[in-house]
Amino acid sequence: MTGALAIAAGLLAPTGHAEESLECGPSPVPAFFTDEARQLPVAEPDAPGHYTLTARLGRHSFHSEWPAVPTLGYHAPGAPVQYLGPTIATERGKPIDVTVVNGLPPAGTPIFPFDQPDNDNNITAHRHGGLQLPASDGVPDPIQPVIPPGGSKTNHYPNAQAAAPLWYHDHDHHNTSYHVYEGLAGFIPNTDETEAALPLPKGDFAKQYAIQDKKFNADGSLCYSHADPEFLGDLPVVNGTVAPKQTVEPRRYAFTLLNASDTRSYRLSLRQTDGRSADRPAMTVVGNDSGYLWRSAPVDELLIAPAERYVVVVDFTGHEGQNWVLANNATAVLGAMNDVDPSGGGISQLMRFDVGAGVSSPDRSSVPAVLVEDAAPVSALVDGARLRTVQAAEVVDGHPQLGDRDRLYKYLDPVTETPQLGSAEVWAMRNRSPDAHPIHVHEAAFRLIGRWRVGQWDSDGLPVPGTIGAFEPARAYESGPKETFVSPPGYITAWVGRFTIPGTSVWHCHILSHEDGEMMRPLAVGDAPQTQLPVVRDLSGVDRLVREP
């Protein structure tokens, strides 16, 4: 199957691509909280159990004051989208096939005047958090082939996993950050009978928000660069709209929050337009990347790093006629998890919720204190698991890499992470770099164990004995099934999971600028026992082994 696209005059960038990193911003600033936040359309199957997504060049307006500008988007029959992609809703036990068509211009045709490394216009399609074979995981080349312009590939998703707020995005090596920024991303949530039975808000009262930061040129067109090498925007964009408003009723809503930004993390809270937070609507986290929490977690603030997803119930009951801003006080580039910047690193407000006067129907939803989850508890996963030590550090300032216990590697270096099929492993990430990294591991669901602060690293990059602090368990809101983990600098962060899918995929930092550099490594799940790794019996054993050099 092939895809084609008629290229309208004026959509393409000038011939040739930038040889040097360009500088972006500052952006023109439109009126905030003017446009209503949109929900992405839901795709319908074009055959039983089959969907088609076509990556295409389009035009999208990020604000009603601005003209439509060139963007990328995924189109599905009956659900054309100019920026981002339609939502594909899947259900446990009901496999589907998704044919991904590359409708981008021919190789050698520049699309955007960015500093992209090539104009090949290849794509892949990764179902982030999905448990599918590597051949359908959309991993970058050379592990799996790319989809060239005019080509297509069909991915099979067995959907043999619990309900979770999954998403999909391009994963073309060296171009992931550019393609996601340009629009190649969307939601693909999985549901099941357990989720359907929960009394949480549903239907019109359950919404999904893809949160990004961007920079724009004076004409409203996108600007993007690896000049720093990370990218930080100066305007918030939610589901493709700059600083939108969302009209809500005075009742409970379930919000799926996805951080689809390149580099920026957010610490989110609700505040009135004058900055006051007193008597704010209650926020309760009920879901993580890969499923529901065992116990719901009330929060005043929520830290969300790139690629993380949280399902949050917000209760607007009793707030009739009020306006509440989704505020941010995280630093622009996340360091320590508790670091605060009142200016939000240049983006202190993301969107506004305008609460109406009444409800359209009775609100019979509730937030159970205990939720039914599908994942094994940490204690069960740890028993008999082997501990694998990995690391993040910088050889050259500003260019982080990943490695095993002993050294750092580049993406195409021989594989060093080789879990045995069916086994459980604890991964202990030693972060010696100056930044926090959201580490994403493909092809498995995990549970965060916790973190240890390291007071000093020796000249070989090992933690100095006696300087490792007390164990800090996972925060309540991040205690559910996950596959993306905030790994702060100067810490050892540990998670545990079982590898049930054979083959070679990847693990990487989900700061997309880092991922497109060399902060990605192959992950090969096979038959070889990992007897070189120590066996963990319980959490005290994890604590003891983590403290060893």
UniProtKB/TrEMBL annotation:
Segments passing through the bilayer: none
Pfam families xref list: Cu-oxidase_2 (PF07731), Cu-oxidase_3 (PF07732)
Domain Plastocyanin-like per the UniProt entry, residue ranges: 120-188, 413-527
Superkingdom per UniProt: Bacteria
Family, as annotated: Belongs to the multicopper oxidase family.
Protein's recorded name: Multicopper oxidase domain-containing protein
